[in-house]
């Protein structure tokens, strides 16, 4: 497993924009999206092999698999759920060169079997119970998609369900990214939705940093529209007609029914609904601005939607927290699984060798990753400010001077030597002191 791409599972409640986000990341409208629940099994997206792009359907009702063309994704989505174990879509997309993306069914689906598939993927039981020591999930990292920002009426319910996922193979915030995928619908009116959502997320940081390494607001629908070839002549023509209305074009954006009524003499109902579904009120306002300047083209609108969606910033965060350390994450996962197996088998010799590996110079980065996970765990008894300090230290982002690092090393030795210090905190303090000591020496030698 050390040479395979990192596996990122996209999870969240039903109808929060998971599949729309996946399409945007893939730059390919392959997953069917609509307002009803549409994902009944796990879709695995990975790089195409020698046989080129294709869809492989692993059967549940009989041995073997069926192969479809990429253009047949809607036909695949319509297969009976009971007959499908999982679907593997192989694409020639750069994002999949070193990352496998897994789109999952909704967590709280009315169809219990659908949610069960997600639970199995993550290595948790349907009721959120602790996994067995031998039980491991199939995903390495998690991208949790929500339609509720921190502080909303539903935020605590969502956070509670989100925390329960942490009992699976993905245990700490270090491996988790939280995405708010529909921030355009949160009633910010004339304010920039992404900017306002980022402000709210920052204000509620103590609520989300216990479950995720970072948060990112996006408008998944606009990203899909910008990237997946949706902006055809028909849609642009309908937008131009709406922008050219002598009055009331803003009022037409209040609901899809009002938009249909305003365009009823110029665009058929289907075209008006497509306009609403693909651009949303915020995207329509961006189109109006381009039309008023005489700059409404497919290229200009796609660029405006891409920028407004926040998808590029999300990709940058994915690169930073997952891709940058994917080799280390895979190694840590392999070591954890080996430890689980050795413990279950009572193999003390292998467990001793694993401990020796972590203690060696070769295991230092793995040890730092484990310490980062421990520091990010809200159950670790750290004082205010210490958690963020250790997150910076063990993630490799420390930027202080050699003198500052040396003082920090001494400071972290104190709690390690205080009688009654909890063992987990004593170990963490010793490792922090050692890490600061190495930084002080390495910076002085430059």
UniProtKB/TrEMBL annotation:
Q: Name one GO molecular function term.
A: GTP binding
Annotated ranges, domain G:
8-151
Instruction: Check the record and name the InterPro entries matching this protein.
Output: GTP-bd, P-loop_NTPase
Q: One Pfam family from the UniProt entry?
A: MMR_HSR1
Which protein is depicted? GTPase
Native species: Acrocarpospora pleiomorpha
């Amino acid at each position: 497993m050390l040479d395979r791409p990192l596996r990122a599972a996209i999870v969240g409640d039903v109808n929060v924009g998971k599949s729309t986000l996946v399409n945007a990341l893939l730059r390919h409208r392959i997953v069917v999206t609509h307002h009803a629940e549409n994902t009944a099994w796990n879709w695995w997206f990975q790089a195409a092999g020698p046989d080129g792009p294709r869809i492989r359907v692993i059967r549940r009702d009989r041995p073997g698999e069926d192969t479809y063309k990429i253009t047949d994704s809607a036909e695949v989505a319509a297969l009976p759920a009971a007959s499908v174990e999982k679907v593997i879509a192989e694409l020639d997309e750069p994002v999949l060169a070193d990352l496998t993306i897994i789109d999952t069914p909704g967590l709280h689906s009315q169809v219990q079997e659908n949610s069960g598939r997600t639970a199995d993927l993550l290595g948790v039981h349907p009721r959120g119970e602790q996994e067995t020591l031998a039980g491991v999930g199939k995903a390495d990292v998690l991208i949790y998609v929500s339609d509720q920002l921190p502080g909303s009426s539903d935020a605590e319910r969502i956070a509670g369900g989100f925390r329960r996922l942490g009992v699976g193979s993905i245990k700490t915030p270090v491996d988790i990214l939280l995405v708010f995928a529909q921030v355009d619908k949160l009633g910010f009116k004339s304010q920039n939705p992404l900017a306002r959502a980022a402000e709210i997320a920052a204000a509620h940081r103590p609520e989300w940093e216990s479950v995720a390494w970072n948060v990112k607001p996006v408008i998944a629908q606009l990203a899909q529209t910008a990237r997946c070839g949706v902006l055809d002549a028909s849609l642009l023509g309908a937008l131009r007609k709406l922008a050219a209305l002598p009055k009331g074009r803003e009022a037409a954006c209040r609901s899809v029914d009002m938009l249909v009524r305003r365009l009823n003499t110029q665009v058929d109902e289907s075209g008006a609904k497509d306009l609403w579904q693909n651009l949303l009120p915020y995207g329509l306002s961006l189109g109006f601005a381009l039309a008023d300047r005489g700059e409404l083209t497919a290229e200009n609108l796609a660029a405006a939607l891409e920028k407004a969606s926040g998808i590029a910033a999300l990709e940058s965060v994915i690169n930073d927290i997952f891709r940058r350390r994917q080799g280390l994450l895979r190694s840590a996962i392999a070591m954890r699984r080996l430890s689980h197996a050795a413990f279950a088998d009572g193999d003390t010799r292998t467990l001793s060798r694993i401990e020796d590996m972590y203690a060696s110079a070769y295991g230092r980065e793995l040890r730092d990753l484990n310490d980062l996970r421990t520091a990010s765990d809200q159950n670790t008894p750290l004082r205010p400010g210490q958690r963020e300090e250790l997150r910076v230290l063990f993630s490799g982002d420390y930027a202080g001077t050699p003198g500052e690092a040396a003082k920090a090393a001494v400071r972290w030795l104190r709690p390690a030597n205080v009688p009654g210090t909890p063992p987990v905190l004593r170990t963490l303090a010793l490792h922090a002191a050692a890490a600061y000591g190495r930084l002080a020496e390495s910076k002085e030698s430059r």
